[in-house]
Amino acid sequence: MSDLPPRAAENADPSDGTGAAVGTDSAGGPGSVGASVPGWMLGGSSASPPGRQRRPVLEKLLNGVAHVVESAMDADGAGEHGGLLQRLDPRVKLVGLLALLLASVLVDHLAALLALFAVALTFIVLSRLGLRRFALRAWVFVPLFTLAIVVPATTSWVTPGHAVLHLWGGAAITATGLATAARLVLRVTDAVSFSVLLAMTTPWSELLAALRVLRVPRTFVFVLAVSYRYVFVLMRLVQGMVTARRSRTVGRLTPREDRRFVAAAVGTLFGHSQALSEQVHTAMLARGFTGEVRALSVWRVRSFDYAWAATVTLALAAVAVLELTVKGGF
Amino acid sequence: MTEVFELANVYFAYGAGVTALAGVDLTIHQGERVALLGANGSGKSTLLHLLGGLAQPSGGEIRAFGAPLTAELLRDEARAQAFRRRVGIVFQNADAQLFSPTVRDEIAFGPLHLGLGQGEAQQRVDDMVRLLGLEALVERAPYKLSGGEQKKVALAAVLAIDPDVLLIDEPMSGLDPRTRQWLLEFLEALHEAGKTLVVATHELAELERLADRVVILGEDHRLAAAGPVGGMLSDRALLLSVNLIHEHTHVHGALVHSHPHAHPPGHERGVEHDQALPHAHVHEVHGHEHTHPHGGSDRGTDAG
């Protein structure tokens, strides 16, 4: 209550319930406060300090989603490192990395998959992304999860073959099973690596614009860009609602009260998003939007981009040769 | 002097009869600087939208550049585009104004959608970036910029169209003192360059630098007064009646007095006074001189 005139606050007796006059308007004109602060607002709070509160699941979930969305899609700083991939025309980079990703899915020979992994590693190093940072982002969850799934496929129960390690009950881990598992894990690792390379070295706006080279309709790209932009705004709004509610919550709420809040929040969010969409449309109309989307073309393919494209083509050719010619082993 | 806008008995109501404007008559001339002044909810932003052809009046007539500004005209793409090239609007809500993925795209949006080719649009972007000093922000996402930077980008995005008339909703809202100063100087430069400026505001502090003429909307959504800034600001009774200033009471021991008081910019949004051009307010009460630190622009003498 630091806004209260000190004299009024000091003179008031909280117990008499009458309160103190604040901002009395002698003229009684428009804009006057002309009201008394109720007695219960004066003096210290009688509430005992709250005990340790657990952060509600809903809030944790929303904050987590907001963080994931921001960190996963926000590559604004991707160009700062000045590495190999960051310097490329995004259209050339998109096509090149998609070709490598497609190769990861199509080739079957372990040597070819290893060669593709070597290509990905080279790009990671030359793009100065940091192996540790990249590994945390690309190689921890998906490949390890895949590994957990393919473990049964290494045993003679699923894949019969030459036993490498004998287990109980006559079962064994087979060489064919190991080869199958290795191929699957490597294939996933290669595919994830090329996808994350694209995401980590290309700002979202450039990635969207580069989609045009794949003949993705301009309107679709524009809608995607605008949706992405407003996901942040609405996410912040939801976080604000949850935080404001928590700041006014004492003790634990019942699941019924929680559900009631979520329903109210959904309604509020819908109202806000509708109002915002109308404002955005109005702002677009004011600058000449008639339904047809136009965008600036700012990129030029340079010799550096051609050189990189040629290198990727050579790498793909080498992978194809490995796939078709290497015999035996896996 | 050529008329840019002529409004005759204009009414506007939202939804089921929520009146926003009632019987407004107004003429705005080419090269003028006009401030639409009024308390919150008086209809300033609605009037700005009507002038920008973004809403249609429920009654009355609006003429722009000598021709009726009707829904029919705005449905005709060629005529609508011609109007949009001449009238630019800067909205108060940056979240609504800045919708593109990068600052470059934001500035290019207007020129490209109003028919300029790639080369010319790129030139406009480069010129705006240079004019407003946005070189470091070109590849950034507009919604991640500070309030002052967003205001510059919003202005750049509208000025890239090169409109004759600039409509700005609450230009000073949410800006720090340095950016306010920059914006005032920039708007003065635009005025000197021949642009017609119409700003909607409820702030009195920088009004004399923002406009030459003031149009005041009352809380009844009618035109309360119009005239030169100086004359309007010295009319305390008028400002009190439209709720732009209020009587402020001070207590000095046994002495109680009141005086008209205008809140400093940002006051109602909880901005600290020391952020809003603080100055000492000196007044005399029953032969004693008292000094109060104030962030506002108190005018007139004590009433008590």
Descriptors for this entry?
heterodimer, A: 330 residues, mainly alpha, two-stranded antiparallel ribbon, two-stranded antiparallel sheet, 11 helices, 4% strand, disordered N terminus, B: 304 residues, alpha/beta, Rossmann fold, 2 domains, 6-stranded mixed beta sheet, 4-stranded antiparallel beta sheet, 14 strands, 32% helix, 30% strand, disordered C terminus
How would you characterize the overall build of this protein?
The complex is a heterodimer of chains A (330) and B (304). Chain A is built from eleven helices and four strands. In chain A, 24% of the residues are buried. With 330 residues, chain A is mainly alpha-helical. Chain A starts with 5 loop residues before the first helix and ends in a 5-residue tail after the last helix. Chain A has a two-stranded antiparallel ribbon. Chain B folds into two domains: 3-240, P-loop containing nucleotide triphosphate hydrolases (Rossmann fold); 248-294, no CATH class. Chain B has eleven helices and 14 strands. In chain B, a hairpin with a 2-residue loop joins β11 and β12. The radius of gyration of chain B is 21 Å and the shape is globular. Chains A and B meet through α8, α9 and α10 of A and α3, α4, α5, α6 and β11 of B.
Helix and strand topology:
The complex is a heterodimer of chains A (330) and B (304).
Chain A: H1 6-11, E1 20-22, E2 35-37, H2 57-73, H3 90-106, H4 110-126, H5 131-139, H6 142-150, E3 163-166, E4 172-174, H7 175-201, H8 204-210, H9 218-247, H10 255-286, H11 303-325
Antiparallel strand pairs in A: 1-2, 3-4
Helix pairs in contact in A: 2-9, 3-7, 3-8, 3-11, 4-7, 4-11, 5-7, 6-7, 8-9, 9-10
Chain B: E1 3-14, E2 18-29, E3 33-38, H1 44-51, E4 59-64, E5 67-68, H2 71-75, H3 77-86, E6 87-90, H4 94-97, H5 103-113, H6 118-132, H7 147-159, E7 165-169, H8 177-192, E8 196-201, H9 207-210, E9 213-217, E10 223-228, H10 229-233, H11 236-241, E11 246-252, E12 255-261, E13 279-285, E14 288-294
Helix pairs in contact in B: 5-6, 5-7, 6-7
